[in-house]
Fold this protein.
Amino acid sequence: MTGGPSRIASKSPPNEAAWPSAKPYATARVAAIGVPWRWLLGGIAALIVAVLTGLALGPAGISPAAIAADLLARLPGLGLGTSLSQLDSTVVWELRAPRVALGALVGAVLAVAGGSYQAVFRNPLADPYLLGVAAGAGLGATVAIAYVGASSAWLPGAAFAGAVVAVIAAYALGRTVTGGPNTTSLILAGVAVAAFLSAVQTFVLQQNSESVRPVYAWLLGRLSTSGWSDVALIAPYVLGSLIVLLAHRRVLDVLRVGDDEATSLGVSVTRVRLVVVAVATLGTAAAVSVSGLIGFVGVVIPHAVRLMAGASYRLVLPVSMLFGASFLCLADVLARTVLSPAELPIGVVTACVGAPFLAVVLRRVRGSDT
Amino acid sequence: MIDIAGALVQLDGVRVVDGVDLQVPVGTWTMLIGPNGAGKTTLLRAVAGLVAHSGTVRVDGADLATLGARARARLLALVPQDPLLPPEMTASEYTLLGRTAHLGFLGRTSARDEEVAREAVARLGLTGLADRPLGSMSGGERQRAVLARALAQQAPVLLLDEPTTSLDVGRQQDVLDLVATLQTERGLTVLGAMHDLTLAGQYADRLALIDGGHMIAQGRPDQVLVETLIAHHYRARVRVENVGGAPVVLPTRALLPARAAPR
């Protein structure tokens, strides 16, 4: 049993692409044993593995056990000694740890914001990038790099502002078209705004061809940080956004029955959509302002989670958060080890790893479906 | 009770509902009837707060225009004409959606919400199917799930928009019998819209005939299901017979008299 949300007369709903869905009976059985915990625990385990791998792997070989021991030694009151040298300790805590933390924050918010967008737009391909975040941030970053310089402190701010302005423009345009925000007109407005901003960005690049390399480096994403300051810069936005979005997970489930029915069930649909879009956009804009445009996470992670753990957002959002964080940490490990000492752009890694991964998940689920 | 006064709905400049007055007393069942495009569904949607309207709609004295979505959902439960059923959602999860307007801070379900939903599932005979996904259910079972969700809302007013479309005649009777039972058990006030005139007449206390957005006639089923009224407003050829005290509307074919002539 797959396909779009069925109606009593099993008509297919208009204007909505089909959602892939897990085998219904498997979902039902999982729900019967009350097993959201299985997926949450799996996600936490994956995150721990990803974080330790991220801390342990790098040019300087330091064992995960020593790192775990050092971590415990830092906890007050345990009185444990550490086997890490001063240099190793600095490498782990001042170079690798901020990078792992940034990866986890960015991965978590991209995945949760993507899942939330998919819920409020009832469209499996929606994510903040689609509504203009990517194009807006890209233009902001391009302008900052072209006119101020690639190492500019203005870069994150310009990218953030570009992303937020683009989504506001798309939202306003989508509203004026139909007199009220309708999901299809919003997405079309996002596409229009994105196309316009990309054209402007191309023009700016053409006028400043010396900025092509740094702009592309930014567009492909990277987690090489200037230490803990980047993490501290985005943490409030990202964490706040995660909290608000996770608090909406049950309302997002109600939206699965459509705007009208959700309204008749007591949801202020317009307000919920505005809040979720605003918060998911802010979180994503903050993330990409330091990480660049890391693609694929917002679409692939919620999808994979939906296919494995069922379609309820009560589960999809928290599990996507954990797997999104893990996924990006591990992708960053690959990004900095594959061509070591050079770095692969992490956007290349997420696409190269994410696409086959989604294909495998899709195949597995479809295979067991028939 | 439901008190609709001067309801007017314009869609794209067309007056789809044009000054309708209608009262539905507490604990009674009124069915809106009328041809396609008469404005039945639009009137129901206006009552449910889904389309902008002028005129007033009061439920138990409260003007619906002043209420938010949440307060309205505690007064009115809507069974839509064409509900969107996420195929992976189980019947019990779906029923629990009916508790949305009752949920506490951050949308947490309480033990009471779970209990009400479980009871609604049991009342509609879905207990054995509670953990089955909606996508694997028959049309009749799905319609019962939709009713269970409406019941879980614990609203005093039930709005039924074509609750029996796409069901076979036995399942139609099942659904209407259930509504009738629930109506007496819980003292629900029911306002519905329906195409099957015979069934509408058998189950509703009162019928209201709408055409072109106007209220044409309202009253007991035998007062509204009159050959001349139905023939004129539906542009149909019908006979109305009295079977066991209830009017039965029979469509007749134009050629029938010629065929029935003695050979």
User: Anything to note?
Assistant: Residues 169-186 of chain B form the longest helix (18 residues). The mean pLDDT of chain B is 90. The two ends of chain B are 57 Å apart (CA to CA).
